[in-house]
Design goal:
By secondary structure, this protein is mainly alpha-helical. The relative contact order is 0.19.
Length: 103
């Protein structure tokens, strides 16, 4: 696999951060709901489970916006932090909203 030095734009960084927070918050929401159930009952525990993905998105947007300057400094000065490996496919600008096809 190829290695690339990457520095995401502000919007891309916030989108990636929001996705990561949403997944992490959804993954750990059963643990949070269990502790909420013990102290507040089943109603609030179910609310915690339902709102976890949306809370993760919101936290991802907030923390992504706050952390972007630090991310920019770190990836500017460190090739280790800025390098990514994997499969990358360029999307033509005319079809930016269409899903990428895997050949």
């Amino acid at each position: 696999m190829s290695r690339y030095l990457v520095q995401l734009s502000f919007v891309s960084f916030v989108k990636f951060n929001s996705l990561a927070f949403c997944c992490a918050n959804t993954l750990f929401s059963p643990v949070n709901a269990f502790f909420t159930f013990q102290s507040s009952g089943i109603g609030k525990a179910l609310l915690v489970l339902l709102l976890a993905p949306f809370a993760g998105l919101l936290l991802g947007i907030i923390f992504g916006a706050l952390a972007f300057p630090l991310y920019k400094v770190l990836t500017t000065h460190s090739q280790f932090l800025a390098s990514l490996t994997g499969r990358f496919q360029e999307i033509p600008s005319s079809s930016a909203d269409e899903p990428a096809k895997d050949d």
